[in-house]
Amino acid sequence: MSQKQLIMAIGNGGCKIVKSSALELDKVYIDTDPEVVEKYNGTRIGAKTCGKYSTQGDVELGRSAVLESAKEIEKIINEYEKVYIITSFSGGTSGGSTEEIAKICISNNKEVTVFAGMPFDFEMRRRTLMANDSFKEISKICEVKTVQYVQDRNYKGTIGNLFESQNHLVLALLEEYLNEEN
Question: Which residues have CB under 8 Å from 56's CB, separation 6+?
Fold first, then answer.
């Protein structure tokens, strides 16, 4: 019997990645930003913690948002055996929430694998440091697969196209992983 699997998008970056996926698994979109939640018909976490805004890049608010919404997350994952978390480690929701959500999944006996895009070299140094910290901490509790898209210095496209390219790489990594598992 095959295990019931869930793709969980965390943060705006994760939501963008998963929205473009054609994988036929159940999907859920989670963020602290009410606009992102509305756009993806997702679940908002941390409404009391964040008020009418998102984490605004604050990793600690991301962690607190999950703790506030832990029961709701447990309800979401209840019927699944495996959870694939898709995120980008460069924001407050993605950087702070992913580890706490993975802990909730593990404490509820779920198998968890995280797939994440890492910041580009042109993004703020703070984002890279947050992403590296998130990777180190989450790697202690579950498997983490990351994509670091290195852009060509002569690249003439838009920044949006770079992000889209990295999103496709994260999805390709997930698809490859799922093919190996099955």
Answer: 92
Per-residue pLDDT reduced to its tens digit, 155-167: 777 888 888 888 8
Residue in 148, 151, 55 with CA at minimum distance from that of residue 94: 55
Single-letter amino acid, residue 31: D
Structure tokens at 70: 């832990």
Provide φ and ψ at 152, rounded to 5°.
-70, 130
Q: Cα(102)–Cα(53) distance, rounded to whole angstroms? A: 23
Query: What is the helix (H) or strand (E) element at residue 98, kind and residue range?
Result: helix 92-107
Which residues pair with residue 30 across a beta bridge?
Answer: 10, 43
Q: What average pLDDT score do residues 62-87 get? A: 94
Predicted local confidence at residue 150, as pLDDT: 65
Structure tokens at 150: 């290195």
Pairing of strands 26-31, 143-147: unpaired
**Of residues 174, 176, 182, the one with CA closest to residue 8:** 174
Is this prediction's pTM over 0.85? yes
What is the rounded CA–CA span in Å between residue 49 and residue 32?
Answer: 9
CB burial of residue 18 (10 Å; 0-12, 13-18, 19+): buried
